[in-house]
Amino acid sequence: MAEYWNYELLVLGDYTLSAGRLTVAVGLALAGLIVSRIAAWLAYRWLDRRWDLSAGADRAALRAIKVAIVLIGFYLAVEQLGVGRFSLGQIQQSELTVGGVFLALIMVWVTWNLSQVAAELVNQWIAGQGIGRSLATLITNLTRAVVIFIGFYVSASSLGFDLNVVLLPLSALGLGLGFGMQRIAENFVSGVILLGERPVKDGDVISISGVTGVVESIGLRSTVIRTFGGTEVIMPNSALITNHFDNWTLTNTRVRGDANIGVAYGSDPEQVMGILMGEMEAHADVLEEPGPRVFFREFGDSALNFRVIYWVEAPAKRLSTLTDLLCSWYQRFAEAGIEIPFPQHDIHIRSGTLPAPEDPPG
What we know:
Number of strands: 12
Strand content: 15-25%
Oligomer: single chain
Number of domains: 3
């Protein structure tokens, strides 16, 4: 046994590969394969009980665990063979070895897959917080970016890279680009403010710079507003920060509708107000609280003028509700013999002869 264990299979200079060393290395690699399958099965059972992850996140987590254990087994095998100490060169006064590169690749692989799992966990937390779609996407992407950056940073540091040497030129380059990209930077910062303070969120109905519509999405540079005519307007985020805009649905979705109604002189004001109020109270989309109101505004030039106010649950219902009310009011007025006047002018012509024009001077 001892003779087999010390039998030299390969001699290259100072390096000697014995049968025993090769046997242990193969055993470590096989152990990594076996343990990876057992660990993946146990992890699947644990994840299935503790976390309600999506299929993609489950696969990413299991793949990260399985491949990481396999790679660790191969790493230990490489170290056992003595190959891991082979130098590949110098990096910033640090020796780059085969084992170090192998270990760095393991960390990159695991970090990449764990970023997907972390993003899924963050998504699950966001789902219960009532956070808008745009902010949720930003948080998820930032989570993945942070996890990936940490993984690459640790991997590069383990290889001997001094990342400060790389980060300093990048920061100087970023400063130079910043002066030439102030508008983009302004919109980017505005997007972060919008997503953080949330004065407007996905689905809100807003009016800004003559544009009224529904907010489709809020990105880091611009906000997409879909008008009621179906047009998509790309609004720079800085416009939403520096300009005044009306948010119809910031705290609730209720909006007020109103209309001015005129009836002919000779109509009974109490009867008119009763018809107006009755039709609003009977409409399914008119809210009971705050309830509808009717006001007798004035004696107009050719009509008795009334003003009606009502509330609906959503901005999209305001015009359709007004259409229904106008049709029902018109029908009820016709049934009650109440006329809707139209402006008219009386022209009085006096009888007699017109004086003859004088002759122009000579």
